[in-house]
Amino acid sequence: MARYLTQEWLDESRALAADQPERPGASCRMNHVVTGAPGGDISYYWLLENGRLVDSRLGSLDDAEVTLTASWDDSVSIAKGELDTNAAFMQGRVKVAGNMAKLMALLPLTNSPEYRSLQEQVRAITEF
């Protein structure tokens, strides 16, 4: 089991995501910031190309198109499936900076059966 929001966890999650279907145009350079984590704030990024996660690492991108910021508690709740990502966004629990249109184009992917299955797989390998 990989500890949540470590590089090992990012690597294992990306490997599980390798078989996600191609979604032409669903591409984004995205930073994530999690505030109030037990060891301090955590930053990581995702590179999505046509619906596929091609890179994810601790740190941040200087040229990110979107930055999502959430508290540790909300981030864990989302990762555990206890808080819906879209609901957290609509409730203002996930803050967004950058290209809102780019993010809105990606949100429907989170409701796809393939994405939901991937989230279950990631939860199974995650130590919170």
Verbal overview:
The protein is 34% helix and 30% strand. The protein is of the alpha/beta class and 128 residues long. It has a single domain (2-127), classed as Nonspecific Lipid-transfer Protein, Chain A (2-Layer Sandwich). The strands form two sheets. The chain has a five-stranded mixed β-sheet with strand order 4-3-2-5-6. A hairpin with a 6-residue loop joins β2 and β3. It is globular, with a radius of gyration of 13 Å.
Portion of residues in beta strands equals 25-35%
Query: Helix proportion of residues, in percent?
Result: 25-40%
Outline type? globular
List the total number of helices: 5
Spans with pLDDT under 50 lasting ≥5 residues? Answer: none
Radius of gyration: 13 Å
For this structure, what is the CATH homologous superfamily? Answer: SCP2 sterol-binding domain
Using the coordinates above, name the CATH class.
Alpha Beta
Tell me which CATH architecture applies here.
Answer: 2-Layer Sandwich
By helix and strand content, what is the structural category?
alpha/beta
Q: Termini separation (Å)?
A: 10 Å
Q: How many strands in all?
A: 7
CATH topology assignment: Nonspecific Lipid-transfer Protein, Chain A
The major β-sheet equals: 5 strands, mixed
Largest beta sheet: what is the strand line-up? Answer: 4-3-2-5-6
